[in-house]
Amino acid sequence: MTGPATDAPTRPRSSGVGYAVAGVLVVIALGAATRFLEQQVPRWADGTGFAGVAKSIEFPVYAIALGLLGNVVLSRLALRDALSAGFRTEFFIKTGLVLLGASINLKVLATAAGPAIIQALLLISIVFGFTWWLGGRLGIEDKLRALLASAVSICGVSAAIAAAGAVQAKREQLAYAASLVIVFALPSIFLLPWLAGVLGLSDAVAGAWIGGNIDTTAAVAASDAIAGEDALQIATIVKTTQNALIGVVAIALTAYFALKVERRSSSEARPTIGQLWERFPKFVLGFIAASVIGTLYLQWGGDKATITTVNDLRTWFLIFAFVAIGLEFSLRGLREAGWRPIVVFASATVVNIVVALGLALVLFGNFTVS
Largest Cα–Cα distance of the chain, in whole Å? Predict the structure, then answer.
């Protein structure tokens, strides 16, 4: 396996417990450094011209960057393959997504998100379909275009992670999709509130537009902090509604790839229910269960601080996941993908902006924020 920038000599992969523990410790140390940078960089930049950008940068940026740095160092020391048993990317990702479910309050969706549900269903269907179609026209490999379509149409990195589990994508493909989400989300934080003011959009329409566009929940919150508190309320409902559909899309992708994509490239017979269940990403069930449990917990008078703690734990696991992605990353997958995924993602982002604006105007044009 090659490092991110060079072919470094490597020692044979070791299955020893000592190496695995050392690998986990490397992930934890880089994860702690990620959290430190996430919290301190905005403070360091406060009062400077970079303050706005510093506040908008989310943990995946630092985590992947530190993971890639560790990748280079360990490859140079011929230690990366030996320690890789501790880079438990899949475990960290799945655990983080299960914990994400606890923040999805089903009661809020059922009682306050009627227009948001309609917007989410239409927006996801249109944007996912366009991205999948354009990716196919440009010859992008099916697994990568599934990640790109999920990321741009649903909720960015979290959706890409869920899709990766459903279609069994390569780690390089997930890292590529996550990087594109981050690159396109950062300018949107400042651009969309400005455009909302230029277009004279109401708070409800602006919130629905921003919530349906920006591909990470934290970036949505940052953008609507600029747009205003009323816009933030609507954007949070819209984005939460889209987040809740992660499980539905993961189930659909699992079935589609098993029944069509993989059968198309082989002579295998139609998979049985048992085979579908075997490859189905079980963490999706955990995501749904966590959402139900979290909703019932709050409904029965539970302390919101507990949910906050769970969310913080989720962040830690996702930080570890992105660190591990960086540590295991290889340029081979990106070289093979080339420029085409960037064109697809950029085009889909434009479509997402236009379609989301139209839906927001129709569904939230007469909506009053109480």
Answer: 64
